[in-house]
Amino acid sequence: QVQLAESGGGLVQAGGSLRLSCAASGRTFSTVVMGWFRQAPGKERRFVAAITWRGGSTYYADSVKGRFTISRDNAKNTVYLQMNSLKPEDTAVYYCAANTRRLTPTNRGDYDYWGQGTQVTVSS
Length: 124
Description:
The chain is 0% helix and 52% strand. It is mostly beta strands and 124 residues long. The chain starts with a strand and ends with a strand.
C-alpha cells in the first residue's frame, strides 16, 4: 500500500501563490504516476496535474496550464504543486493521489491511493 499526506493549503488572495506538498510512504516503488485532483463544493473531483514517478513527464488540465507546476523529489518521496496567479475558481479541496496500475495520468478511476485532502481558498 501507499500512504499519502498533503500539506500546504490555506487562504490566499487572488493573484497569490501557494505550494502544496504530498509526502508518500509505503510501497512507493510501485507508483507509476502521481496526480493532483481538486473538488469544489457540489462538483466532481477533477484532474489538475500529474507527474510520472520515474521519468518526470508532466500533465496539466487546461485550466491550470501556465499557472501551476507539478514536481517531485524522489529522494524525499514527495510531490509538489506550485500554484501561482491563483483565481477564486481555484478554490477547492486538493487531493494527492497515486496510480500504481498504468500510465493514465488524467483518469481519476485509475488512481488507487488518495490522501485526505487539503483546503485551498482564494479570495477575490
